[in-house]
Each structure stands twice: as structure tokens, then as C-alpha cells.
Amino acid sequence: MLSVKGKGIKYLELFAGVGGFRTAIERAAKSTHIKAECVGFSEIDLNAIKTYRANFAPTDSELEIGDITLLDSEKKIKKLPNFDILLAGFPCQPFSLMGARGGFEDSRGTLFFHIANILAVKKPNFFILENVRGLKTHDGGKTFRRILQILTDDLGYNVRAELLNSRDFGVPQIRRRLFFIGVINKKTFQKIADFDFKRSRHRKKFDTTWHLLERDVDEKYYLSQKLIKTILAHGSGNYWSKSEINKILARPLTASMHKMHRANQDNYYSDAFIKGKFKNGQVISLTKDKRKIRKITPLEAFRLQGFDDSFVEKAQLVGVSDTQLYRQAGNAITVNVAEAILRAILRS
Fold first, then answer.
1. Rounded to an integer, what distance in angstroms lies between the CA atom of residue 334 and that of residue 348?
2. What does the pLDDT look like over 260-316, one tens digit per residue?
3. For residue 98, how many C-alpha atoms fall within 13 Å in the half-sphere facing its CB?
4. What's the start-to-end Cα distance of the chain, in Å?
5. Angle at which helices 309-317 and 46-56 pack, to 10 degrees?
6. Would the CA dihedral through 342, 343, 347, 348 be positive or negative?
7. Which residues pair with 283 in a beta bridge?
8. Domains along the chain with CATH numbers
9. d(CA 71, CA 195)
10. What's the mean pLDDT in 195-214?
11. Torsion sign (Cα): 338, 341, 347, 348
12. What are the backbone angles phi and psi of residue 38, rounded to the nearest 5°?
């Protein structure tokens, strides 16, 4: 088992993206006075790696794995450094409610089996896997049950699967994600089996989107009058859906939000809302001028995922574009949620 005194813990981050899990475990380790050491990470998106490196400056001792499908034998997996915790937000497209939902028939769905192979060979004490809520109901629940069977019966882990909403962890975004929490030791698992992660103390920098939004931003984020008509439209043809802007709790961020201008899918705010007055849980507009509407900025997108402002600033300094930052924020895990789970594990 891991050592709390002196040695600390070692972790491996797979499908790292920009390092949401790494941010979470560093915060959790700091709050529990445990040293956390990253032994390696995997990511294939070059822009995400650019943001990751800008924020964490990985040392030479950290293994940069790249494509984990290249770890296609037990011999190769054994060469990985030893670690206590495996963290992975594995690709969600095969199980997403917005995708074709190909599941294990999709080549990306098979990436789960690469995680399972690493767990089988390296046998870390803990793991946390994250995916979309649609995985739970995919193929009538068969995919979900198959994953649980592999993790428990085949690999010998005690597993808790929990659907958690970001809004319950101090960020004003409705975002439901499925987390698999695995513990090899049964007694240790019992300490977190029924723990209410929402009761865990978490950061709450912004009560609502009104508190989170920047007050003055570049004009490039504002919509033209033509686009405003599209955003405010309630659908077309046989499709009807009430268009809403200025939501106190943001819609779920998506990796495709860099395309923007999709009514009822992305987050838009008017100057009347942004520069209004917050009172008794709602925003009171101080002006009736609703002609100026804008999309959220990359900084606001990362705030909605629980990242500090410096995270975006460091990425921008190395030339990561707005388009890539939007994609990265939409792909990221909500740091606050992962941090709450990790604190429970470290304290167990």
C-alpha cells in the first residue's frame, strides 16, 4: 500500500488532455499533506500537450507515453514505472449521448481495454476513470455492466461507480459525468464506499455564472446582429426548442464549442446581464439594451471547469489559440469533482 509518511504517492495520468486530473491530485495532496509525484502521462493531441507542458513543466524523470495503444504487450507495460494511482478520463465519443454511440464497436471504445491491460499488469492500489453519463445506459446497460465485470471479476478491484454533477462541487455548470473509483484493498474501499463526495469541502470561487464572467472583454467575443438572430431563434422547420441565454448555471461545455453559434447548446450572455446587479439569487438588469450578446471567453470556460486563471494565461503565453483552448476546456474534467474524490481516497 502507499506510504503517507515521507514517500507520498505516485500516479500515472492517461488520456491526460491538459492535465485536469493532475491539477486535482496536486490540490488534494496539498490539502492532505501528502506528496504526489507524477511518473508519467499519455496524450496524443499536440495542442493539449502544449498547454500541459506550459502548466506543469514535466521533468525528465516523467515518462511521456504518447499513444497508449503502442503498449500492446505485457512486456511493454511492465516497463512502465510503478505507481499507486491510475487516473484516466478515457475517450467518451463512443458512449456520448450526442454521438453515434458505437461503444466497444468503435475503435475508440476499445481504448478502455488498454487501460484494463495496464491495471492487470501494474496492479496499482487505486484508479479513477471518468466518462460521460451516457455510458451507463449504452446498449441497454450492457456496456456499463461489462466494464464493471472486467474491473471487479477479472481484475479484482472493489469498484464504486458514481454519477456526479459539477454544480454540486463549487462550479456553476451543469455537467454530469460517470466516475469509476477502484480500490484493491477491501478494508480501504469500505472507508469510501458510501462516502458522500458532495459533503467534501470544495473550492467555490464563483456562486453563479454572473460572478464568473469577465466584465470587459475583447470585441471579438461579441456576436454580430445576424448571429444574434440565430442564437435567439427557437428552432426552425420541425425542430423547436426555447432559446435561452444568460443562464445562472452554464450548459455543459463541449469539445465542439469552438464552433459556437449553436442555439440551445452553447453559453451566451448579454451585456445587460453581465453588467447588471445580483440580488436574491437573480440578476437585475440595469439597462434594457440587450443588443450586445457574446460567447464565453476561454478564461471563463476554464473557470467553469475549476481551473485557476493562471492555467489559461500560461497556455496563451506559449501560443495556444482560442480555438484550441475552447476544445481543451470542453474535453477537460471538472477539477473540483476529481479533487473531492481524490481527497477521500488519500484520507482513507
1. 22
2. 666 677 899 999 999 999 999 999 988 766 679 999 999 999 999 999 999 999 999
3. 9
4. 12
5. 120
6. negative
7. 278
8. 9-204+334-347 (3.40.50.150), 209-329 (3.90.120.10)
9. 35
10. 89
11. negative
12. -85, 125
Three-class SS of residue 117? helix
> Could you give the residue ranges of the DSSP H alpha helices within the chain?
20-31, 46-56, 74-78, 111-122, 142-149, 186-192, 209-212, 225-232, 271-274, 298-303, 309-317, 322-331, 335-347
Angle of the 46-56 helix axis to the 20-31 helix axis, nearest 10:
20
Give the separation between CA 188 and CA 344, rounded to whole angstroms.
Answer: 11
- Give long-range contacts, CB 8 A cutoff, 24+ apart: 139-146: 139/101, 139/103, 143/95, 143/103, 143/104, 143/109, 146/104
Phi first, then psi, for residue 98 (nearest 5°) are -95, -10
Q: How far apart are CA 146 and CA 151, in angstroms?
A: 9
Taking alpha carbons only, the member of 192, 180, 112, 114 closest to residue 152 is 180
Average pLDDT of every residue of the chain: 89
pLDDT at 2 over 80: no
Residue with cell 504526489: 36
pTM of the model: 0.91
Nearest one of 72, 64, 17 to 38, comparing CA atoms: 64
Cα–Cα distance for residue pair 60/327, rounded to 1 Å? 28
Contact 330, 267 (CB under 8 A): no
Cell numbers that stand for 276 in this block: 447588471
Which of 322, 312, 220 lies closest to 23 in space, CA to CA?
A: 312
Q: Cα 319 to the chain's mean position, in Å? A: 22
Alpha helices in 264-305 (DSSP H): 271-274, 298-303
Q: Cα–chain-centroid distance for residue 230? A: 29
- Residues serving a catalytic function are 92
C-alpha cell read off for 264? 440551445
Q: What is the pLDDT of residue 240?
A: 60
Helix 322-331 vs helix 46-56: crossing angle, to nearest 10 = 80
Q: Phi/psi at 287 (nearest 5 deg)?
A: -140, 155
